[in-house]
Every structure is written in structure tokens, then in C-alpha cells.
Request: fold
Amino acid sequence: MNTFYLDNFCMYILIVLLPVIGSFVAGLGGRWIGRLGSAYLSTFILFLTWLLAVFSFYEVCLYSNIVSVSLYTWLLIDIYQINIGLLYDSVSASMVVVVTTISGLVHLYSIAYMSHDPYLTRFMSYLSLFTFCMLVLVTSDNFLQLFIGWEGVGLCSYLLINFWFTRILANKAALKAMIVNRIADVFFIIAILLIFVLCGTTDFIIVFNLIPLVQTHVISFLGMSCLWIDVVAFFLFIGAIGKSAQIGLHIWLPDAMEGPTPVSALLHAATMVTAGVFLIIRSSIVFEYSEFVLVLLIIFGGITALFAGIVAIFQFDIKKIIAYSTCSQLGYMFFSCGLSNYYVAFFHLWNHAFFKALLFLSAGALIHAFFDEQDTRKMQAFGESFPFIYIAFLIGSLAIMGFPFLTGFYSKDLILEFAFSRFIINASFIYSLGLLGAMCTAIYSIKLLYFVFLITGRCNGHFVRYLSTYGLTSECPWQMFSVMFILIFCSMFVGYFFSDLMVGVGHYFWQDSIYILPQHFSFIEPEYIHPVIKNLPVLVSLMSMWMAYGFFVYRPIAVFLWFNDFCIKTVFLLSGWGFHAAFFNVLYNFLFLSIFKISYECINKFLDKGFFEYFGPFGVYKLMRILNVKFKFVRYSLIFFSLNLMFLCLVIILLYVVSALALKLVVLFSNMGILIITAFVLFLLTLYD
Reply:
């Protein structure tokens, strides 16, 4: 393994800078080069970035090199120094390829999808800026620079979700995404501060080398003591679940579908929601020394994988079904990291990017053809009208289900195999949840295919009038067609091509980018589990497919009426409302409103407007009024009274100065005392003059 330190501008810096150049070109130059000119130019810049990313992947990953690009010193405080630089190892270079690939395809797709929008240049500028922030995040060489990219993708997500800012739902969804992510970001900031206080730097290489030495340090707060490594890992974990929309902080994800469909594809496939998983993989050495947080990763990931799958079954919005599908697949990645299988989690992230982008962009093609209709109940029997979109949807759905020899099969089933091979109670529990999650994946995928492409009968959508009147000239423009064709190829073959390279036995792809403790290492065990266990996820998925198809084809209305009625009677556990994000919205609204009400009653009314104001300004004012009433009967107009008052003040001042000199404190207190007494005398004189 070789390490190169470069001080000059080169290919690795251009990978990060080109998208922001494309953003400025599209945003500022659209007036001169036109809408389509700026769109195609920014897309060309993204594909040039992708070409450079492939070269960096070839040099870094295939030739076992680590490239460190030092740019300049950002902060220099005493002996503490924070630099701006880029770090390209196997994890960073692989993420750069994923981000640039999906972003370039989304740029090309958006040219056709947003062709009717008068603000196409602004949209393309936001997309390129989004890509730039994500590249800053994944190529950072320290936590502080990573946090800048982390906040950048949050800002760009707000701009893109709220792109159609005249829509109230888009405004609310963007604000919700921003606020929920800010809650998680506070914990991430605390983790960075703790790392800086203990290690004296935020640089990855230095911090990760110091972790084994400082892992036994203890933090004491309010009489409680805990290991430093547990606190840091916990705060990093909270930041990750907020960005990756795990259960509890997942409520922003379905509402984010109010933005344009290309935004959803980029958001879910390669950028924002994968940032949390990337943070955990990047900080693998921190999590390896914290058994407590590893258990939290397992629990949250497994519950989210099952929870989101159940929610997706009861959704009818085509984009929300795919959004909850993303939430479920991220749960698989989280509990894989909790089992210390970081490289398998990253391989699933790599594969998931392609078939999730395919699903979203295929849904976008349908929405584009159906005049912005997203309700699957209004899309019936369009398999014959849109054969290519149907094929794209079918391949994407089979890939996410883990159908044999498609991309998802090589990573999703491998996660479950690794979970079964770990002989601990947590692993067995998570394996069961993973199987149930795979069953839910098959059910909602078949439901989506059935409602949109296979069900027969009269369609309820308003767009049928337009299709019957004017006809349908083509399924989609050539830009959308070419993008979906590339993603179909990737969803079929990427897992096969890269499985031996990334997760094969005896590979050295990850070099030193991922750290696993020897007691957590389980690389060989999955090769020796029983073939029935290996094939069980596939069998469960196939069984669920046929079961779901039977439900939908044979008496689907009766089955769903009975099922929904049964679930409503069981305290909303499985009903379409109980597991919906609205349940969490109501719960959070109740909690926050209760907190605000308690704060208003106790702090605002009792303390602020009660105690402090009564004994503060209003109390002083009332006291002065009383003293004024009592002193107004004094005959202050006589000259001897004024002379006596002046003599008394002079005596007090002299006594104070003498005592201060005697105690050797005149330097500290004399000036202050004289000012106080003088002010008091002037006050009395003005009061009774």
C-alpha cells in the first residue's frame, strides 16, 4: 500500500471543484446560453467529473493507493491546526463513483423531465451544488470539513424539496426535513467537539490512530461517569440516524417526496440519506470500541427495516412507497454495521444506489406521462402502453427483492447470511427481522407492479381523457430512455461484477479504510452455513411474491377490507394510519406542545413574569414609590437639612476611603465605592430638591 501526499492541483481536486463550477455556470450563465444550453453544459461537466472519478477509483482501489491532497491551513489556534484537504481511500473513491454516476444520470434525466419548467437553470444549479456538497462530505480528511459537506447537503435538500416554492406542502416538507436534520446535527457537533478536546485535532488519520489509546478515558458529568468512546459513538450514531432517516427521526423522509422526482432519486440513491451510513463506515474504528452503540445500531436498523416495509405495504402514493423502501434498505445497512460487517453494508449501499435510482426515475417517467399523477389507484393496466417503463420497474423491483443473480441478490442476502453466522442473540433476532423485512419488500413491490401495470379495469385518472383524445406519441424522451437503460444494465450486472472485488473471500479492496476488531471479524463463517439457510431469503421473497399476487388477483378487495378492519381493531398496530408517519407527527406534536405548555406555565408565567419581575423591575419601582411617600413629609427645604445631608455623605466617603486604605484594597474598590455613594447622594438630592 502506498500513500501519496500532493500539494498541487490535480485530478483529485477537479473531481470536487467541477460540480460547483457547473452549478455557477447553470445558475449565472443561463441568461446568456439559454435554458437547454446551461442544462446540457452542467450535465457535460458532471459526466466529465464521473470520468475523473473512474480514473481515481482505478488508481486508488485497484492499485491499493491512498491519496492525500493537502490544500491549505484553515484554522491555526496555538498548537491546534485544522487543514482543508482531501482524502481518497477505498471508501471515498467508491463513494465518489456512486455519487457522480447517479448525479450525472439524474442531470441528463432532468433535462427532459423538467423541460416544461421555466426555472430549469435554477434546478440544474441546485443539483450540481448538491453533488458538490456530497463530494466534499465523502472526500474530507477531517471531521470538521465533513460537517461542512454534511450541512451543505442539508441546505441543498431544502432548496430542492422546496423547488416548487408556491406549493404549501413543499414548503412544509422542506422545513420539516431541515428541522429534523438539525436536531441530529447538534449531536454530531457535540461529537466533533469531544473528539477535538481529547485528541487535539479532527484529522481522520490522527484521530483513528489515537482511538485505541484513549478508548478507556472516562467522562464525568453531573455525578455520572461513562467511557469517552461510548459518548462519542452515541452522538455520531444520533447524527447518522437523523440523516439516514432511521426510526424516530424518519418523519422527514416521506414528506420530502413533494420535490421533483429527480430530486428524490438523487436524495435517496446516492447523496443525503446515504451520508449517515457513510459516516458510520468512515468512523468504523470508533464504533468498534463501543459495544453499547453497536447494539443500538443492530436494534434501530432491524426495527427500521421491518417498520418501513410494513408502512410501504399500506401506501398508495408511488413515490412514498419507494421512499419507505429506501428507509427499509437503510435499516439493513445499519444493522450490518452493528454486526461489524461494514464492507457488506457499503456493498449494499453501492448496489442499492443503482436499483433505487431506477425505481425512482421509472416512477418519474410514469408521473411525467400521467400528467403528474402519483396515486397508484389511478394507474391501471398500463403495462401494454408503457412496456419499457414496465420492464424497468420490474427489474428494479426484482433487484430490491433480492431475486437471484440481480444486483440486490449479491448484497441483501449476504447481509442476512452474515447476521445468521454471528452466534449471538442479537444476530438471531436481527436475522428474523431481516427475513420479515424481505417478506414485506416482496409484498409492496408486487403491489406496486400490480396496481400500476397489471390490474385490469377502467382507470380513474383524469389523464385518461388526454391520452384518449391526443394519444401517446412515446413513452418518454430519449434522455429518460437512455438513463433508465443504463440503470437497468447496472441493476442487473453491477452486483455480479463487483461482488468478488468488494466482499469476496481473500480480497484486499478496502485496505486500511475499514477497521474491524479481531473478535468481531466474521468473514469465513457465512461460507459454511447450510444451503437451506443461504437460500431462505430468496425462498421467503418468492413465497411472498406469489402470496401477494394471489391476494391482489383473487378477491383483493375482500382481503384488504378484512385486513384493514382487523388491524384497526388491534389498536392501529398494522393499519395504514397507525404505522404511517402521521402517527409520529401526532406523537411529536403532542410531546412538543406539552413541553412548550409546561415551559410557558412554569418558566414564563411563574419565573419570568412572576418571580423575576415581581422582585426585579416592578419590585424596585414599588419600593421607590413607598419610600417617596414616606420621605415627602421631610422638610427638605431648610438649609440646615441640606448641609447636614452633605456633611453626612462626606463623612461616609472619608470613612470608606480610610478603611479601604487600611485594608490595601483602595485600588480595587475605592473608585467603585465613590461612584456608588456619589450616585446615591445625587439620587437623594434630585429626589428631594
